[in-house]
Amino acid sequence: MTDTAETIDISGYTFEKAVAELESIVARLERGDVALDESIAIYERGEALKKHCEKLLTAAENRIEKIRLDRAGKPQGAEPLDGE
Question: What is the Cα gyration radius of the chain?
Fold first, then answer.
């Protein structure tokens, strides 16, 4: 991984994209064929990706909790799950 790749802003990553990159990092680290300095750098990126995924999951849980059902079983007062 290059310095440029390590510093790419992940704040706009979708959950799926962040998980895919995190899985790639884990696979590289598990193979054990990465130099120590690079291992540390990609581990740190993995930590950032993990935190980003946790943030996205928490936001999704909070949106889901806002959904309420009326007596007929229909959602009421729910906010759109896609943020629109």
Answer: 18
Looking at the predicted structure, is the pLDDT value of residue 12 above 90? yes
Q: Which amino acid is at 15?
A: F
Residue with tokens 């959904």: 67
Three-state SS for 76? strand
Give the 3-state secondary structure of residue 68. Answer: strand
For 52, the token pair is 């980003």
What are the beta bridge partners of residue 68? 76
Q: At what angle do helices 36-65 and 15-31 cross, to 10 degrees?
A: 150
Residue 42 burial (CB count, 10 A):
21
pTM of the model: 0.71
* pLDDT, greater one: 58 or 81: 58
**CA separation for the pair 12, 3 (Å, rounded):** 19
CB-CB contact of 41 with 1 (8 Å): yes
